[in-house]
Amino acid sequence: MKAFLTGASGFVGSHVRSALVERGVAVQCLVRASSPRANLEDVEPANLVEGDLRDPESLARAIDGCDTVFHCAADYRLFVRRPGEMYATNVEGTRNVLRAAHLAGVDRVVYTSSVGALGLEADGSPADETTPVSIDSMLGHYKRSKYLAERVAEDWVGRGLPVVIVNPSTPIGDRDVKPTATGRVILDFLNRRTPAFVDTGLNWVDVRDVAIGHLRAAERGRIGEKYILGNQNLSLEGIFHKLARITGLPAPRVNLPHWIPLTVAALSTGWARLTGGEPRVPLDGVRLSRYKMYFDPAKAVHELELPQTPIDDALARAVDWFRGRGYVVRGPLAVSR
């Protein structure tokens, strides 16, 4: 088996690559010239192929000789100044990868979507892969672009391409180099930048379990099916209490009504648009926090035997990783296990 992987420099993609290598799979990684290399330090130069999701010719060269494709790359931002760039990467880039996979005659494609592209239950109960959804319910350009990319993947299934879709929930753990919006929640807690919380919740999962879910989707997933790669539904307050136990730092106690962070985010995002900077509090992120994004991963647990590593383990690993790489600037932490 030889795998072609996009997004190897990123959070999820780097763990997918490690999981493949541990199983003796040769991995050919697509990287942009501007891709960060922190998660690629142990990759042989011969296994790095420079290209771009928006460049079909580079994809054709990169995928040559591979029999399995893992398309993990995506433009994941909650604030985007030029939305067209996000759609070009997430939607048209996915179309380009799947077309290249089709022309190469690969045996299996695993497309990394997101639970953000799935429907939510109105009462806040856990949704699953069959919960009704429409583009009108997609809040923000990231969710809209991932929703549209899923439709592209489904279209290629209809054309005979053996695609399995995985929908990671909220991965946590090590190697979150940018960091992601979720990693920022942990990092802000560590740096004492979280004086309060809002009433929201997410489905949390160890990023290493997500990587294993990708491999098992390639091995056991049913073509055309979607699988939620998740674990535990927890409120934001609950996550802060776990972080407090792990680090010895106090958890925030003030529960803010949503209108307060919405106002702050509107001002922050408006100022960013005026100055050309990045908002400290993206408006789309706060809008999303009005909903509890709870999901049921039972299908992946049953069909793919998705691991369910305790969330505390993944949080502790994230804390150690951020500390060890200089992300934490507020002094030493007392880490307890």
Biggest β-sheet, characterized?
Answer: 7 strands, parallel
CATH class assignment of the domain at 2-176 and 205-233 and 293-309: Alpha Beta
Which structural category do the helix and sheet elements fall into? Answer: alpha/beta
Give the strand order, joined by hyphens, for the main sheet: 3-2-1-4-5-6-10
CATH topology of the domain at 2-176 and 205-233 and 293-309: Rossmann fold
Which overall shape is indicated by the principal axes computed on the Cα atoms?
globular
What are the low-pLDDT stretches, counting only 5+ consecutive residues below 50? Answer: 332-337
CATH architecture descriptor name of the domain at 2-176 and 205-233 and 293-309: 3-Layer(aba) Sandwich
The number of helical segments is 11
- Beta-strand share of residues: 15-25%
Beta strand count: 13
Give the ordered list of helices and strands. EHEEHEHEHEEHEEHEEHEHHEHH
Mean pLDDT, to the nearest integer, reads 91
* Share of helix, binned: 40-55%
Distance between the termini: 39 Å
Q: What is the CATH H-level superfamily of the domain at 2-176 and 205-233 and 293-309?
A: NAD(P)-binding Rossmann-like Domain
Give the key terms:
about 325 residues, alpha/beta, 7-stranded parallel sheet, 4-stranded mixed sheet, 11 helices, 13 strands, about 40% helix
Protein described:
The chain is α/β, with parallel strands linked by helices and 337 residues long. It has a domain at 2-176 and 205-233 and 293-309: Rossmann fold, CATH 3.40.50.720. The chain is built from eleven helices and 13 strands. The chain has helices at 11-22, 56-63, 83-104, 141-158, 181-190, 207-220, 236-247, 259-275, 283-288, 298-303, 311-324, and strands spanning 2-6, 26-31, 48-50, 68-71, 108-112, 163-168, 170-172, 196-198, 201-206, 226-229, 232-235, 254-256, 292-293. The strands form three sheets. Strands 3-2-1-4-5-6-10 form a seven-stranded parallel β-sheet, sandwiched between helices. Strands 7, 9, 11 and 13 form a four-stranded mixed β-sheet that branches. α4 (141-158) links the parallel β5 (108-112) and β6. α1 packs across α6, α2 (56-63) crosses α3 (83-104) and α7 (236-247) crosses α11 (311-324). It is globular. Mean pLDDT is 91; it is low at 332-337.
